[in-house]
Write a structure and sequence with these properties.
44% of the residues lie in helices and 12% in strands. It is α/β, with parallel strands linked by helices and 712 residues long. The termini are far apart. The relative contact order is 0.09.
Amino acid sequence: MDERYYAHTKDGAPQSEWQTVRQHLNNVAALAEGFAAGFGAQDFARAVGLCHDLGKYSQKFQRRLCSAKERVDHSSAGGQALYAANENLLGKLAAFCVFGHHGGLPDGGEINDMPGEGTLCARLRDETIEDYSAYKKEISLPQLVPPKITARDGFSCAFVTRMVFSALVDADWLDTEAFCSGGTVDRGGFDAIPVLYERLSEHIKGFGKPDRELNKKRTEILKNCLDAAEKPPGIFTLTAPTGSGKTIASLAFALKHAALHGKKRVIYVIPYNTIIEQNASVFEGILGEQNVVQHHCGVDYDGDENNRKRWAMENWDAPVIVTSSVQFFESLFSCKPSRCRKLHNIAESVVIFDEAQMLPLELLRPCCRAISELAENCGATAVLATATQPGLNRYLGREPVEIVKDPQGRYDFFKRVRYEVLPGEIGLEALAEELKSHEQLLCVVNSRPVAQELFSLLPQEGSYHLSTLMYPMHRLRVLNEIRERLKRGQPCRTVSTSLIEAGVDVDFPVLYREKAGLDSIIQAAGRCNREGRHSAQASVARVFELEGRKYEKPEHAAFTYAARRNEDISSIKAVLDYFEQLFYTKGDDDLDKEEIIAAFNDKKSGLYPFRHVSEKFRMIDDRTHQVFVPLEEEAKALLRRLESGESNRRLFRRVQKYSVNLYDTDIKRLREMGALYELAGGNELLILANPEIYYGQSGVCLEPGGGEAICI
């Protein structure tokens, strides 16, 4: 009787019902082939899938399946076999995928690396791998066929390697899941793109023939989007002013374009979680709640009723994905199987980059290269949607197609405010006196300490403070109170940091904005006369400089440059002038500060540093520490659960609603004051021990000396 080799067991099942290695390899090869077809790597992915678990043909692995407590490296065998049969660049790329399918893509390393160092070179030289030659009875090593892509450089090769790696990982996990669960996992079941487009078409029919000029202009932009959707796939810009209906219009473009050109899904990439939730809510109302999957740090699909969405969040196998910029781009540069698993499903999609000007400057060039690779080699269509187009042509390698006809004319119509750049400098106390002269206003400053100090100079009645020194639930209550007072016409003077620019829906008649980047100033102005209740002439956005403050960042210099050249600092020309000067001042090196592109292009031998790049590519500042503020009753209940030893993802998501993020220097100061303690159990969660330093109107006070503790 032929000896059988098994890949997976099943609890309680006899050996005759276990999955054989040959079954698993053929299944994974077929799935990976289909997943990689969208970026021309189907043959290459099939070969990788067929060989990824050759190490399971070793006797040691077979003993392990029968409960032997032996550690077995089954990932190295297939990589070595593929490279031995193809000692060239293709062989290395295939080995990268196979070596990484459990532990993550390794660094290429150096040719003289020794076994045990974990690099590609080290693992190719490792001679201690268990004998797996039994595979030859069942599997023939396939010929490696190069992916059909335009490989401009090492970055392109590394990018497609990560996409093939994604196809392999997802195929491997799906086949394993299907076997081990007996097919009980509830995946799929979403409506098709053409069905969703029909649903949207029905929705926009309700717009009818608009009678108000405002709605006419919004309808014109919507029509521009529907017309542009018929154009060939590629990279587009959608220059849409605040209030122009960009959310629905961009969805209309995406769904029609996807339906006409056979795209598989629509992916929205958004910089702020607040906007993600707002947009997702709009999409759910039109397309059906079951068809929209959110993926960001604030979403929780662990409940039984949402299992389908939870599974889709793992690999983005849903028609509409709404995600964060952090999740999207960090995944594209990750080495981890769990984060890379979804990447192949970005291929052949329509990807909308909302607020595209928010791409971090230090990573601008690698982000643009990734967008370019998706469009050029992965069949994706990309749309850069914003009111302040940053002019990324040079870094995208092409000139995007503008969707909106006469963008400047649209801007002129939707203009809600007039801008004033105040001459000279103003002291904090003088600024406070000027703010007191307005019944309702918003003042946005650049730092949390300045926000707290300026707020302390305003009358207590009708004055509000917003910053990240307040935990999210506290900020939400304050925002609701602000909206209510604005609606009632009551005094409402609000001092905030730039967090209010993140799509927060408030409408003030007057704005004061400390000097910053022009895009940030225009974003802040979007909170002024938002509903168009007043004329643009009567609604003023004043830009000021504080006395004694240094404005030396490249953003400040670029703002000054654009303001001198343009009477209207928010015009499309002013915005382009601003970004052109900003990019020039920063220079190409600072637009790829971690040298991500060079890391791949310097490795002409194909020994790409996947793990190194994964560690270096960070969209957000990770120097902050989460501090839990257990003052409200719900927060106290959460603390009791934590102290009892409970630890799970859902619990920590709820904890985030009552936490602030503080920098190292702030943490040091609070520790010296004895205001913090660390929760036992090794989860590194810091707890605010002294409620006296959390003020009821302004949050954590880093320099106590006045105010009142919060009472909730």
